[in-house]
Amino acid sequence: MPFEPVLQEKLSHGVIRQIEGLILRGILRPGERLPSERELSERMGVSRPSLREALADLQDRGLLSSKAGAGVYVADVLGSAFAPALIKLFATHDEAVFDYLSFRRDMEGLAAERAARLASDTDLKVIDTIFQKMETAHQKRNPADEANLDADFHLSIIEASHNIIMLHMMRSMYELLREGVFYNRSIMFKQRMTRDTLLDQHRAINTALQARDPHAARAAIEAHLDFVETALSDQQKADRNEVFAQKRYEHEARR
Questions:
Q1: Which of 115, 137, 174, 216 is deepest in the core (most CB within 10 A)?
Q2: Sequence-ordered alpha helix ranges (H) in the chain
Q3: What are the CA-CA distances from residue 231 to residues 50, 162, 225 (Å)?
Q4: Phi, psi (5° rounding) for residue 221?
Q5: Which is nearest to 29 in space by CA: 174, 245, 230, 133?
Q6: Distance CA 29, CA 19 (A)
């Protein structure tokens, strides 16, 4: 018979599985500091030796890292998604920007559809809360906070889609976006009219998700990223035209 005796699980294995699950689901994020050993053992109801055994195993496997005198952190597992040489290529070739946006359009459209169907009520509250923060940040003259919340808003939709492969892949892509590898998001938020349009687009996405309308959510995502692509293309053309305008001006000034 294909049965074996049931053995009680070691407490350290239970700790390992719980922390692995939190990392896998994106709840514990790269660079995030874990609570102190005392607090963590109390929260999880395990002894410190069992906790230490679990943390040591997770560190050996590269999921956690320790810093002397600073505690234990979730390892930067996203850093290995792209080789440094490839990241430099992304940053120096315009076609990478538009391929990136095309990829996001497909992936985020799918994620929005899934989120509209599969997100819990709490997931949708998270998305709505971030959007409300965007509305508040929109009132500020400095667009930095609004630009940062833009990335958080899109990632919250990915998280609400409950596909862990998509979550980690897209989080890695967004880290490169935050670092300005694909384009400088602050450019998108410089003009007030553009900021107004972007906020309206995010409102449409949020409204569709709160209504749990998969088709409307996907359409709103696609319309938003189509706008971003067009705006970036127009900005690149304007920048190139300005280079020649400066040359014409310098030439005319010397005559």
A1: 115
A2: 11-24, 37-44, 48-60, 84-92, 94-118, 121-137, 144-160, 164-178, 185-188, 192-210, 214-254
A3: 54, 31, 10
A4: -65, -45
A5: 174
A6: 11
Q: For residues 32 and 152, what is the distance between their CA atoms, to the nearest angstrom? A: 16
Per residue in 96-110, pLDDT (tens digit) is: 888 989 999 999 999
Q: What is the pTM of this model?
A: 0.77
Distances (CA, A) of 76 to 63, 149, 176, 202, 204: 8, 21, 13, 29, 34
Instruction: Encode 26-36: b = buried (16+ Cβ within 10 Å), e = exposed.
Output: bebebeeebee
| Model confidence pLDDT, tens digit, residues 119-178 | 999 999 999 999 999 999 999 988 888 888 998 999 999 999 999 889 888 888 887 777
H or E, element range at 79: none
Tokens found for residue 254: 């010397």
